[in-house]
Write a structure and sequence with these properties.
Elements: E1 5-10, E2 17-21, E3 26-29, E4 34-42, E5 50-54, E6 57-62, E7 67-69, E8 74-80
Antiparallel strand pairs: 1-2, 2-3, 3-4, 4-8, 5-6, 6-7
The structure holds zinc ion (2 copies).
Length: 81
């Protein structure tokens, strides 16, 4: 069975376009030979927020501020797995 791979996301180290595995939600950079996961931090307190995907729309929850965040009020980044 073929894996569902999509070219998306930019590697935080080398700026290469990474492949996303839709099954695991992980990103893989062929140049770094490294797997990354998408994470986000709250733009108010700077703490890592939880990723909630409700109805296909990306939403985030900050446990520190105790509030729901939209994509615009968080900073997305890739973290080494
Ligand atoms: Zn890379
Ligand atoms: Zn916060």
């Amino acid at each position: 069975m073929k894996e569902n791979i999509k070219k998306t996301g930019i590697c935080p180290i080398c700026n290469n376009v990474m492949s996303k595995n839709n099954r695991t939600g992980e990103y893989f950079c062929e140049i770094c030979n490294e797997a990354y996961v998408k994470r986000a931090t709250c733009n108010k307190c700077g703490k890592e927020v939880e990723l909630l995907s409700a109805c296909g729309a990306l939403q985030f929850f900050c446990n520190t501020c105790n509030e729901l965040k939209s994509k615009k009020s968080v900073n997305l980044f890739f973290k080494k797995k």
